[in-house]
Amino acid sequence: MRPADRSAPRLRRAASATAVAIALLAGLAPAASAAVREAPGAYGTDAGRRLDRTRLQAGLNAIQEAGVYGVYSGVRDGRERFDGAAGLADTATGRKVRPDLRHRVGSVTKTFTAVAVLQQSAKGRVDLDRPAGDYVPELLPGERGRKVTVRMLLNHTSGIHDYIGDAFPSLLKGTTESLDEHRYRTIGPAELIGYGVARPQLFEPGTSWSYSNTNYLLLGEVLRKVTGQDPERVITQDVIRRAGLRDTYFPGTDPRIRGAHARMYESFYGIIDPPRDYSDYNMTWAGTAGALVSTPQDLNTFYRALLGGDILPRRQLDQMRTTVDVKDETGAVAMRYGLGIYSMDTPCGPVWGHDGGVFGAGTWALSSPDGSRQFAIGYNLMKYQRLNEAGTAFDPHPADAAMRDYRDRALCGTTAPQTPDPAAKNRPSAPSAPQAPSAQGPSGEAPAAPRALPPVMPALPGPLSGPIR
Q: What is the pTM of this model?
């Protein structure tokens, strides 16, 4: 989930001018591709790809030293495991992070929702190529409901607009007050879907690709219709429990995270200064599109079970990994998006997974195609990047380069090349006593009014639309 709306002209202009907003590229007809298969020898058990715990911990330290408050991660290769962490869970008290902290995982939720829909497809209750309006006519009426299929919702080719901008309207006006005004709001999926559906179509259904959280709230309501149960309960029973996950759950209307977790700080590209603590937040605004709480270890277990064939029948897993190409502004394929999961390239071959971001919390979970090797990472400072003077692109940030290096080291071992860090000369040192970010509690004082957003602001509603590439 990303707090921005693609319809705002200033956001569109910024997105088209920078490579970090690949998810916003409308008008590019997606080319369907077959499910990506593991290249022979891409992943193996040779010494070069074994887990080097010392170097992996050094990679986490580098992310923290580059300016992220806290980072926690799990890496697995067969039976080998590495669990590590670096930095602070709470900047006010100095509490340290640890590897197994619970964390809001944002759009990683979409893989879970997609799996539940595909399970119903395997049972014959959902036809992926049937009009979505047949299942939820009250939410997607008329011609649009007849043209948009369930598959188009799953792979973001529906052309339905994202609801985020209307759910947090101050963002469209250039300020971030909505983030605080709606912290404890409970809002239902029908209202959120209504925001997205009320907007004009971005393109004719099935002719292009555009990331939209509205798609995945609609899928949740399809689950409700065909099962007669709350969709979050269906996902919990059929996906979370089936995968054997112990620390993954939907929070419902509870704004708090149960169990040990880090505080979660939002900078919004320097507009919220110092970054504000958003670890308490009512996540009904995200629902089946992005409300899950999990841990790096649970995410590794989930993707291993999914890609290993333990959660879906082979036919449905193959459909899940049938993708459309997502291209950047140069026409190059930046990622391949399937049904709630995407594939991207690394130095040792393609990997599968998803990323996620909510206010104050970022997540990335990727796995080798067979589920044998994987990594997941959570971090508790969001939108730490800064725009260039023109307001059209992000300046290189050392934390992004460090995150890429850690990803490749985790997935590829010592075979991964070191990514040049163009911002190394500007690398900030980790603050010994960081200023405590502001916070707003249920009975606390309201935070100071945020500054206005820059004249041009990048929109970030899609996967990997942040600078981490």
A: 0.86
